[in-house]
Amino acid sequence: MNRLAPSILSADFSRLGEEVRTIEEAGAHVIHVDVMDGHFVPNISYGSTVMKSLLGKTRLPFDVHLMIEDPDRYIKDFVTDNTEIITVHQEACIHLNRTLQLIKSCGVKAGVSLNPSTPVSTLEYVFDDLDYVLVMSVNPGFGGQKFIPSALKKLQVLSEMKLQRNPNLIIAVDGGITLENVRQVVDAGANLVVAGSSVFGAPDVPGRVKEFLSLMSV
Ligand code: DX5
Ligand code: ZN
């Protein structure tokens, strides 16, 4: 099943609980949690406290996207009953294998994200043990940017490798996803689609979630 993960980065934080309820009732599958530190990316978003404020308010799993330097220091803070996946950036990890082991030892799925310029080949020696790869289709740091088309090629390469070596791998795409390109990314191999501004910026948020879901259904 292809899953939709709205990013709360584009939600109205003054009514975050309500925003999350709205997307859950409309059928979204996952909550994408964008954590930015102002170092790895040129923007600061929010930390684990904001994510934890949703505990007990939603049954949706959290997909935690850590856009931070030295993520090992903070991984445990993001492990909760709702946390399904914790993702670190390949570019931010000097000892990526160790970091992935740390995430797995916390009982959650381990993911790696690749910036637009980072090749899939950087994952060669961790690929077989990965639960999740997050292909950035914008340069991370901000919502509302334009989709970078070379992400499609990267999704195709990953989905070939998945067939050969890691059939349960979740392949996610993040950045600039709209009603216009969502089918393309699914066809290229994404089975988890992150969308921020195109969901929470829509005049009718539940209607927009449903439009995404119908375009993504196999
Ligand atoms: C970007 C974040 C994304 C962002 C996507 O750095 O990782 O998850 O929220 O937002 P849109 O869908 O607006 O590009
Ligand atoms: Zn993200």
Give a description of the structure:
- This protein has seven helices and eight strands; from the N terminus they run βαβαββαββαβαβαα.
- With 218 residues, the chain is α/β, with parallel strands linked by helices.
- Strands 1-8-7-6-5-4-3-2 form an eight-stranded parallel beta sheet.
- Strand 6, helix 4 (150-165) and strand 7 form a beta-alpha-beta unit.
- Helix 1 packs across helix 7.
- The longest helix has 16 residues, at 150-165.
- The radius of gyration is 16 Å and the shape is globular.
- The termini are close together.
- Zinc ion is lined by residues 7, 32, 34, 65, 174, 194.
- Zinc ion binds at residues 7, 32, 34, 65, 174, 194.
User: Radius of gyration, rounded?
Assistant: 16 Å
Question: What is the CA–CA distance across the termini?
Answer: 8 Å
Q: Provide the list of bound ligands, each named once.
A: D-xylitol-5-phosphate, zinc ion
Sequence stretches where pLDDT stays below 50 over 5 or more residues: none
Q: SS-based structural class?
A: alpha/beta
Strand content: 15-25%
* Overall pLDDT score: 98
The ordered H/E elements are EHEHEEHEEHEHEHH
Overall body shape: globular
Which range best describes the helical content: under 10%, 10-25%, 25-40%, 40-55%, 55-70% or over 70%? 25-40%
The beta-strand count equals: 8
Q: What's the arrangement of strands in the largest beta sheet?
A: 1-8-7-6-5-4-3-2
Major sheet details: 8 strands, parallel
Number of helices: 7
